[in-house]
Amino acid sequence: MTTIQFPRVQYPFPSRLNSHVAAAQQHVEDWVHHHGLLSTDKAKARFAKARFAWLAARAFPDAGLHELCIIADFNTWLFILDDQCDEAEAGKKSGFLRSVMTGFMDIFRHSDPRTPANNAPLPAALISIWERMKAISSPEWQQRFIRSMEDYFNSCLWEAQNRENRIVPTVADYVRMRPYTGALLADVEAIDIIEKIYLPADMLQHALLKRMVQACNNIVCWANDLFSFPKEHKAGDVHNLVLVLQHERQCSLQEAVDEAARMHNEEVAIFVVLEKLLPLSGSEKDYELLRYVAVLRSWITGNFEWSLHDTGRYSAMMKEYVNS
User: Fold this and answer.
1) Please, what is the Cα angle at 32 between 26 and 34, to 5 degrees?
2) Global pTM?
3) Distances in Å between the alpha carbon of 189 and those of 220, 257, 298?
4) CA dist 167 to 31, 162, 239, Å?
5) Chain segment 150-189, per-residue pLDDT in tens
6) How far is Cα of residue 22 from the mean position of the Cα atoms in its chain?
7) CA-to-CA separations, 223 to 9, 53, 170, in angstroms, rounded
């Protein structure tokens, strides 16, 4: 096995942790059990060491317990969906996935979604999340969130079609689609209802802030690729920045890791520069904008700290490839 030197990654802002993290973790464990989301011993063992609520608690450090539990359930649901698609051969078929994703979108679009007749765990769990989200959100926010989830599901189909047709995406195509496959845009939309930060529509559409969100998304997703490339490499899945770089440039795995780290660090530098250029007006609106940016910061540092210290999701596979 080739040994890879893991790149040095640092962020110029601190990591924070929500004080409700222990209660949220217990809630997630109870919620997953209640909905029967773990059907195999392998899934149960993986979930036990994942500590998904810790990721939510690092990303949303000022959220109340109720809101933290909602977003922790949502991210846990996403991870479990991703794992089930990875493990099941049927989940790699675009036709099968399209039918599954259509069912999920029906839940979002129907005003009163019904639990599936067969009480399928993933749809039933999604209904429980969506009902709680709707209770604390506006119709306008719900439409934005639904669009972000539709983009995520479509990106999952894109990956499945690539696997079916044995297509390795170009680096440009991968970089274009990665913000959607990571589902982070849905989490960014959730800043509104989870941290109670209500920016006006014109501010959310401001070019500088949109580029900061893009930088945050790239940083989080590409850091995740640096942690998870051993998993994808072993499984033969090319949907990882390190692996598409290696394929396109015909370089060594170490060179691809180094280039992915360089791209990641460049986005960090862009984020830091843009933060200094925020359109502050000297009014009370500045406080909400700074709070919003603080959550983006927390996502960046929180994802890295969770991946490195809190979860066992990547550690075993990383040890096979990487020396720190």
Assistant:
1) 100
2) 0.94
3) 15, 30, 15
4) 38, 5, 10
5) 999 999 999 999 999 999 999 999 999 999 999 999 999 9
6) 21
7) 9, 19, 19
